[in-house]
Amino acid sequence: MPTALDRLADEKYVQLTTFRRDGRAVPTPIWAVAENGELYVWTPRDSGKVKRIRNNGRVEVTACDLRGSRTHGATVSGTARLLDDAETDRVRTLIGRKYGVIGFLSVTGSILRGGKRRTVGVAITLDA
């Protein structure tokens, strides 16, 4: 029987929900990949979700479609943490591998537009 991590890692998109200081949820559809018991995402360093994770690492993850409008499966709570540069490079590699040509082009285009410091990896440890 697949775990929640396996199920979410097999999805093309997941909805990552972060929380504002006042507790309001902010859902965002995003690519995700799993390795070593954690779910990883990759996002611009100046994004709202990064600011919210710095303030509060509590997150929820649900499988979804491209726009995040249709979710399916169970929502899983977890804790997110921002990764250092070396770990972020690893996430870029994993994203490129999972999403093929589109993933590679997205990662490469992002680096060309703003350098490697433009984005950051996020590791999510799902609650048991």
CATH architecture title: Roll
Q: How much of the polypeptide forms β-strand, as a percent range? A: 35-45%
CATH topology: Pnp Oxidase, Chain A
* Secondary-structure element order, N to C: HEEEEHEEHE
How widely separated are the two ends? 15 Å
* Quaternary form: single chain
Enumerate how many helices there are, as a single number: 3
Kindly name the structural category.
alpha+beta
Strand order of the largest sheet: 2-1-5-6-7-4-3
Highest-level CATH class? Mainly Beta
Q: What integer is the average pLDDT?
A: 95
* Residue share in helix: 25-40%
The CATH H-level superfamily is Electron Transport, Fmn-binding Protein, Chain A
Taken from the alpha-carbon principal axes, the silhouette is globular
**Mind describing the biggest β-sheet?**
7 strands, antiparallel
**What is the CA-atom radius of gyration, in angstroms?**
14 Å
The total domain count is 1
Beta-strand segment tally: 7
Uncertain segments are none
Features:
128 residues; 7-stranded antiparallel beta sheet; globular; alpha+beta
Give a description of the structure.
This protein is of the alpha+beta class. It has one domain: Pnp Oxidase, Chain A, CATH 2.30.110. The protein contains 3 helices and 7 strands; from the N terminus they run αββββαββαβ. It has a 7-stranded antiparallel β-sheet. The protein is globular and about 35 Å long. 27% of the residues are buried.
Present the secondary structure layout:
Blueprint lengths: L3 H6 L3 E7 L5 E6 L2 E3 L2 E7 L3 H8 L2 E7 L6 E12 L2 H30 L4 E8 L2
Antiparallel strand pairs: 1-2, 1-5, 3-4, 4-7, 5-6, 6-7
